[in-house]
Structures are given as C-alpha cells and as structure tokens.
Amino acid sequence: MSEGALIKDMLPGDKPRERLAARGPEALSDSELIAILLRVGTKGRSAVAVADDLVKEFRSLDCLARASLAELSRIKGVGRDKAIALKAAFTLAQRMARELARESPLLDSPDAVADLLREENRFHDVEHFQVVVVNTRRRLIRVDKISQGTLDSLLVHPREVFRSAIAANASALILVHNHPSGDPTPSDADIRVTRDLIRAGQLLKIDVLDHIILGRRSNERTKDFVSLKELGHFYT
After folding, report:
1. The domain at 7-103 falls in which architecture?
2. Which letter, b or e, does each residue of 36-69 get, where b requires 16 or more Cβ atoms within 10 Å of its Cβ?
C-alpha cells in the first residue's frame, strides 16, 4: 500500500471504519480502534499494522495514553501528526473519565436511587422496569430501560437485565420500577421476579443490591417508594 492510501482502499479485513459502522465499536479490537485514529497507513503498511505495533510496544492502553509525543513518534509509521491525533484522543478520554467520576452519583441507599429516578418515572401511566448499573463503589455507571407494562417473568428476562452489567464489567445492579397507581407496595409478581433475578445474578456473579418500587406519597405513606431489601424480600 502506498503512503497516504486511504482506509477505503484497504483490503476488506483492514477496514475498521466500515466494521465499526456495521457492527458497532465493541466489535473492534484496541488496534482497530487506534487504526481509525491513525486514518492511513504508511509505506505499504496498513493503519491496523501500525496500530498493532503501538499496542505491542506500550502493552496497555494506559501506558499508551501516558506516552509522550516523542515516544509515540518513534513507532514506525506514526510520525508527528498521528502522534498528535492519538494524544488528543486519549486526553479527551481522560477528561471524560474525570468528568464522569465527578458527576456519577453515589447510590448507596434506597433514598439515593429514588432521588435519581423519581422525576423520570413520576408521570408514567404504565409500569416501567429499569436497571441501574453501579461500580464497586456504588456509583452510577448507567441506567437501562428494560421493559414497560405489568411486571412479570415474561417481560423481564435475565438476559436483558444483566446485559449492561456484563458489558460494563460491573459487579452489581439495582432494580427499579414504578407503580402508576401510586401505591409502591410490592405485588406477588414483583417479589417473584426479584427472587428469580437474584438467583440469576448469583450464577453470573453480579449482585442484585435492591429492588426499588416508586409510587407517590399520601396521607398514609410518608415515603413515595419502598425497598424490597428493607422489606425483607431478599432471600432466594
């Protein structure tokens, strides 16, 4: 491949951009993602081959991100411009990580979980089941909407519930759904599904920390939610 050849001129196996568009970024290796940043190869070598050399030389993404422009430029096929592009991309990733660390709420109590999702669920006229994925420090990674409608084992499949936790390499999650009636008292189906998911989590080594049901305050209820764990339903 001549110097300056574009990715579109590569062999099908060397087209990481097309693979990302077709299959998503998770389908690509570290080298392929780096190759997209490099854009082009050099002197008969593909961008993926140059990226492979970077990964082998620095051994981890953390070491690669910490490398100086001079260290990056020493890799054959990188050069000053590609080194700058890599440094910019890794710096943005580091800034995003710091931003997320500052903004991710601590979800170490039922009240904190209810505060996070109360407004989003306040006006739903059907039940919405959500999964809150957290890290080992109980800080939020993401919230996924799994299903809507009456909660039962047909609508809430363990595969969908644990998908995000597995993808994020998370060790724990929290179940949340709303009761449009306003009464957060758990039904028999709520309890049954919760216990089924606890058992599934035990097999996957992913802890189900709690199941929060959101409702509304009333003269009889000082809280607008209940915690199934606090109610004693967390046994299998």
Report:
1. Orthogonal Bundle (1.10)
2. bbbebbbeebbbbbbbbebbebbeeeeebeebee
